[in-house]
Design a protein that fits this description.
With about 190 residues, the protein is an alpha+beta fold. It has one domain. It has seven helices and six strands. The strands form two sheets. It has a four-stranded antiparallel beta sheet. A hairpin with a 2-residue loop joins strand 2 (about 85-90) and strand 3 (about 90-95). The longest helix is centred in the N-terminal third of the chain and has 28 residues, at about 10-40. The protein starts with a strand and ends with a helix.
Length: about 190
């Protein structure tokens, strides 16, 4: 296998991903408040307008971040990986330390599973726990905005990694292709 491309989490792209995540969160929060004020549900309005528990909100958001990384880890283990968790440049991360080469669809599942599963589970929880609607909505919003890095990296893989295998590495990943596949691309360009 020959490395053909890579993505590294640097200070610069970490800064831009965190700014993008913050902007998405802010826009989502404004839309959330507008929806709450227009809602016909008194319970929904009360949860938003009378919520003054910053501690509980932060606790739920932090738990969501850890849950997000645990789902990455579970998906990685499902595909045979060995998981390490850490933090770098204000970003929590999950890394496969096995050196496995993943097919593109497998890596996309590993990257995007938390976005979909956590958002769906918390959305369902809103109907079961209506008194916690504010906190659950904050968790959904945080999970979506916190997935900006995952979405960006998945997009990179889709655009650059067709026919490649992906290996998770410390603070990023690399795209690899077999020598035969690389030679075939040169012989038969699209």
């Amino acid at each position: 296998m020959v490395q053909v491309n890579e993505f590294r989490l640097t200070k610069l792209n970490s800064f831009f991903l965190n700014i993008a995540s913050g902007i998405i969160f802010f826009i989502g929060y404004i839309l959330f408040l507008m929806a709450a004020l227009r809602s016909n549900s008194d319970l929904f309005k009360e949860a938003i307008l009378q919520n003054n528990s910053l501690f509980l909100t932060l606790l739920f958001v932090i738990l969501t971040a850890f849950l997000h990384e645990l789902v990455h880890g579970a998906a990685c283990k499902f595909f045979g990986g060995k998981v390490k968790y850490g933090i770098k440049l204000l970003n929590l991360y999950t890394m496969d330390t096995s050196g496995n080469f993943y097919k593109v669809p497998q890596m996309l599942v590993i990257m995007l599973l938390p976005l979909f599963t956590i958002s769906l589970v918390f959305t369902a929880a809103i109907y079961c726990l209506p008194h916690y609607v504010y906190y659950l909505c904050m968790c959904i919003l945080f999970n979506i905005s916190g997935s900006i890095g995952d979405i960006s990296m998945a997009t990179f893989i889709i655009l650059k990694g067709r026919g490649c295998r992906v290996r998770d590495e410390e603070y990023g990943f690399s795209l690899h292709q077999s020598i035969a596949a690389q030679a075939g691309e040169q012989l038969y360009p699209e």
